[in-house]
Amino acid sequence: SRAGAWSPALVELAMIRPDQLPPLYPSDAVAGTVTAEAAAASGLPAGLRVVVGMGDTAATRLGSVGTDPAAALIYVGTAAWVNWPGRANRGCMLATTATGAALRWLRDILSAPGARLTYEALLAEGSSVPAGSQGLLFLPHLCGERGPFPNPRARGVFTGLTLHHARGHLVRAVVEGTCCHVRWLVEEGIVGSSVPAKA
Question: Which stretch of DSSP H or E encloses residue 96?
């Protein structure tokens, strides 16, 4: 928590004792130094300071846009997340579960045994298809969904599939579906939830 302590409620939920958890320090705190044993195993010099560090998303934001409070960031990899100043000067972040992972999945299932397709070849096929994939739509919820509304039971969908669709249409639909989902995250964070809260 911001108070520098583990949440008692979460500790209880995890069914562990507080003394089983490490102490909490700021990201720039020195946690210790490389021991002689660790130096021998890693090749790092003994006595080198070890800094606590931060999570990957915070590090990505810091490395990409620095400390600019007005900067927005869209990160796309295996999954994707968007981070921007948000409402009432509070930072907002929303994430999805499968962007690059969806394209990797499609590549893997379309590849012949022992002859994996390249992403360049797949994307070239997808780019030859007109926008909209001739009515083929893809929902990228291949691992449940994190945002903008968490739903671990969400599932991926191809809809509108017909006999005239080919591999390029599938590729284009996956790219368009993941891009549209990221855009939804951005819009949801800017305007706020459009889904009424549950009673």
Answer: strand 92-96
